[in-house]
Amino acid sequence: MHTTYRLTEGDAPLLVSLPHVGTAVPPDLMERLTPEGQLLADTDWYVDRLYDHAEGLGATVIRAQYSRYVVDLNRDPSGRPLYPGADNTEICPLLTFDGKPIWRQDAAPDAVEVAHRVDEFWRPYHACLSETLERIRAKHGLAVLVDGHSIRSHVPRFFDGRLDDLNFGTAKGLSADRRLAQFIFDRLRAASGYTSVRDGRFTGGYITRTYGQPKRGVHAFQLEIAQATYMEEKPPFRYRPDRALRLKPVLRQMLETALEWAEEVKRRRPGG
Description:
Blueprint: E1 5-8, E2 14-18, H1 27-30, H2 35-38, H3 47-50, E3 60-64, H4 111-140, E4 143-151, E5 166-169, H5 178-190, E6 196-198, H6 206-211, E7 218-226, H7 241-268
Parallel strand pairs: 2-3, 2-4, 4-7, 5-6
Antiparallel strand pairs: 1-3, 5-7
């Protein structure tokens, strides 16, 4: 097992990527974090628990081990912003989502250190992601990548008001087959008690945009979940099983729908 991520391999044409669930921070970096930074408040808390049914469906799951404060696995290593003209976080973030410094005075990473972190933490995750997608595609003729995320329901730095519960992103229709995207969003929209939006504030990050290549048979989408649906959004960020119990079947149905679509595509092929 690689130390920067954990991979559990399955036999289905489905890969679940969880790039922001990690909470590990090397000791030398932890010493440089501000008290606000040490909270790791911007973690995608417990998202791996929300998708704990994925392996039982035959999905391959890759989980980040290290905090996004070490390096953000869902950002372009060149530094290109995800949303031009909007407030963006860096590949090695400098500010929390609340706009507070992550690093102590004079302790923020410089360009040399950023490049080192990209090599040490970012590249192994993406090498595994790329290799795994190719393995799945070679075996099944296609691959579906689900990039799982969550964020607090109120983050004024990035959006006004309360975020929808289920934020489905397909890079504005470019990262996945249109029928697949419609099937998935129909299921999310039908989920009782939850609000949903397609390609709204969150259209998919670097992973969705880079690996989603429908013409090559790789279909990717991102789901950004409002954390209020399954946890307490203030420290100590408690998991709420009562809330999660309602949400998890929605996510399971989403994965099942993706698998049903993939099997249908395989059956329609000559010789399928």
